[in-house]
Write a sequence for this structure.
């Protein structure tokens, strides 16, 4: 069997990893300075993606698969066993060497590693763990490691991954049982959630042990996350948000990522012919943010959806909710509770905190609030200040049209 050159394998397996949304990649057109013309290149940066830390720092990660061989036949996956794609494979030592080389050249700050299933789930999990072990124990690697774990693997192996990785994740793949059975027949929801529950308990136990014993080993200190595919099955946005809310509550996840279904070559006949609009994915992330930081529950976000259960695409879910529950407005910025201020469209968490701090000193005027938001036009119908009351503006029948931005195609050379 002819061995594929390392650079070609890197290109294949980095491209195969792009469908995982657990770290946000940036894309660009392919340009390079081969031939001595120009400076820099975007063509040879295979496998490098950008993720963001909680404090806003942009972190570069080497993102790739250990292999794109797979014994599973998930319809939506380009690496499924029935797919006609070029296959490649790394050894754990090769991935470790690539990570160290990229790190020493200051290309990356860590590794994001996933894999197709070869032989069986436990064998693949052992290879992923061995990669992380080589980095941590043999090379004393202190950088960031994110491992995609395999729920079908033995629970002891999944638990071992957390001893080497900063973050671990298990994809639930699809929001409904029906969708999972139809599009991923080799996967089982009970098995997936069981593995997530085991990881969650191990993370909690490790944190408790660290409080009592200074030298207790760390276990996935950055927590666990998961990913759901949007638009591959018939699940609407309400279904997805309720599923995400349940996962946050049951397994104490750090993040749920949403990935718009992307049509793949030689796709199965059971899949949609085109991808959902990307703005739908964006609206789901906004809804996720509302649950995590603004005090909304899944049921309230579902109330903001249209009759088909999907969130409106022309306005954000916070505004959609406010328009449906206008009796909750206007909110007096000088007297209302923090929970009510967080419901005002256009006001963020930081802006609300600044309002609460400032109103202790004096009564706030509309100009004062305008300095804390991107668009004062958006918040005017929903607030009262010392010098402003919206009067009949809040109840206008055409308020949605006034506040929704008309769609406009951007032009490079206007």
């Amino acid at each position: 069997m002819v061995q594929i050159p390392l650079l070609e394998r890197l290109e294949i397996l980095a491209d195969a990893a792009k469908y995982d949304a657990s770290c946000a990649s940036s894309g660009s057109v392919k340009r390079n300075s081969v031939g001595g013309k120009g400076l820099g290149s975007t063509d040879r940066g295979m496998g490098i993606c950008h993720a963001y830390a909680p404090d806003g720092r942009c972190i570069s990660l080497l993102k790739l698969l250990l292999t794109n061989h797979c014994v599973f036949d998930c319809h939506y996956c380009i690496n499924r066993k029935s797919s006609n794609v070029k296959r490649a494979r790394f050894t754990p030592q090769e991935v470790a060497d690539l990570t160290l080389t990229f790190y020493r050249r200051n290309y990356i700050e860590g590794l994001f590693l996933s894999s197709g299933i070869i032989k069986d789930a436990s064998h693949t999990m052992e290879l992923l763990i061995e990669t992380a072990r080589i980095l941590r124990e043999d090379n004393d690697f202190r950088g960031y490691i994110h491992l995609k774990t395999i729920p079908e693997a033995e629970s002891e192996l999944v638990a071992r991954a957390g001893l080497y990785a900063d973050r671990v994740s298990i994809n639930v793949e699809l929001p409904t049982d029906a969708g999972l059975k139809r599009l991923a027949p080799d996967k089982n929801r009970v098995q997936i959630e069981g593995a997530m529950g085991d990881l969650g308990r191990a993370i909690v136990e490790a944190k408790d042990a660290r409080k009592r014993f200074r030298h207790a080993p760390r276990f996935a200190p950055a927590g666990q996350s998961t990913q759901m595919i949007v638009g591959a099955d018939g699940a609407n946005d309400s279904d997805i948000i309720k599923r995400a809310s349940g996962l946050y509550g049951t397994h104490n996840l750090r993040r749920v990522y949403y990935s718009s279904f992307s049509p793949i070559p030689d796709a199965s006949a059971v899949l949609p012919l085109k991808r959902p609009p990307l703005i739908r994915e964006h609206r789901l992330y906004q809804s996720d943010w509302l649950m995590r930081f603004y005090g909304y529950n899944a049921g309230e976000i579902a109330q903001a959806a249209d009759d088909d259960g999907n969130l409106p695409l022309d306005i954000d879910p916070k505004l959609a909710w406010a328009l449906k529950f206008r009796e909750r407005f206007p909110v007096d910025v000088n007297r209302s509770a923090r929970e009510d201020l967080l419901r005002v469209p256009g006001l963020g968490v930081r802006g609300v905190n600044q309002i609460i701090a400032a109103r202790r000193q004096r009564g706030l005027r509309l100009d004062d609030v305008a300095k804390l938001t991107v668009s004062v036009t958006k918040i005017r119908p929903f607030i009262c200040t010392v010098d402003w009351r919206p009067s009949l503006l809040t109840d206008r029948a055409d308020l949605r049209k006034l506040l929704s931005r008309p769609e406009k195609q951007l032009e490079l050379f206007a």
Summary: The chain has 15 helices and nine strands. Confidence is low (pLDDT under 50) at residues 24-33, 38-44.
